[in-house]
Amino acid sequence: MNFRRTTLFFASLILLLGILFQGFSISLWWLLIPIHIYLLILVLGAIYIQHNFYLKSRNNLTPHHEKQIMLTFDDGIHAEFTPIILDALKEKNVRAMFFLIGKNIPGNEGIVARMLNEGHTIGNHSYSHGMWFDLKSVRAMVSEILQTNGLLESISGMPVRYFRPPYGVTNPNVARAVRQSGLISVGWSLRSMDTVATSEVALLQKLKSGTFPGCIVLLHDRCEVTSKVLTDYIDYCKDQGYTFVTLNS
Ligand SMILES: [Zn+2]
Predict the structure, then answer these.
(1) Which of 25, 60, 90, 249 is the most interior residue, by most CB within 10 Å?
(2) Which residues have a Cβ under 8 Å from the Cβ of 159 and sit 6 or more positions away?
(3) Which of 74, 75, 194, 221 is the catalytic position?
């Protein structure tokens, strides 16, 4: 199910019901039911990137049966916690993906270079990561994406391939902007909720219980709690037989 097919289905349904209801003199208020269901589907499609409703994203690794997972970190660079996370990954010999916010890059170019030198993959997470990013025009979104690509490419010398929509929210404009930018959208299958984690124990438990073969894990390198549990989580995954990959592996 995607946006286009769903819209076509509900438009046809509402038209058909409208004709039937008029023929049988039934109140048109009943049409509010499919309209509300349609609106609910649009909202759920926007919130849950895993549904690929507006935009097809990589939300899992394939094949699923292999014990591989991918760690992803959003919202960097954070001058304090990103280096701690890089230290943990280096110590454990794990490669990950970092989706960077463009406005956080100036002044932290050395940390981006370190990520690349240590084998991590970097992706684009918009320039502003503003609250209202999803309400911007396609042109404004593309402008943000290209601005961040320019910053990343000036450090790496390589074209950026991956984009993660801010907040994981998608809509028709985000989909168009990603397509126009020529990037691959990357979602997730395990949302750690580390930004609102109440304790290290709770976060670690959520990560452990949610891990499965092929999952893409969403974490944030701006979170202190994430930097504190990362080593234990990696140890747990290794004990369970998992290996860590990135989309560039
Ligand atoms: Zn984010």
Answers:
(1) 60
(2) 149, 153
(3) 74
Ligand 1 midpoint to CA 75 (Å): 5
CATH of domain 57-244: 3.20.20.370
Q: Domain residues of the chain, as ranges?
A: 3-47, 57-244
Q: How many Å lie between the centroid of ligand 1 and the Cα of residue 6?
A: 28
Task: Give pLDDT tens digits for 72-130.
Answer: 999 999 999 999 999 999 999 999 999 999 999 999 999 999 999 999 999 999 999 99
What global pTM score does this model have? 0.92
Known active-site residue 239: no
From the candidates 51, 78, 129, 220, give the one annotated as an active-site residue: 220
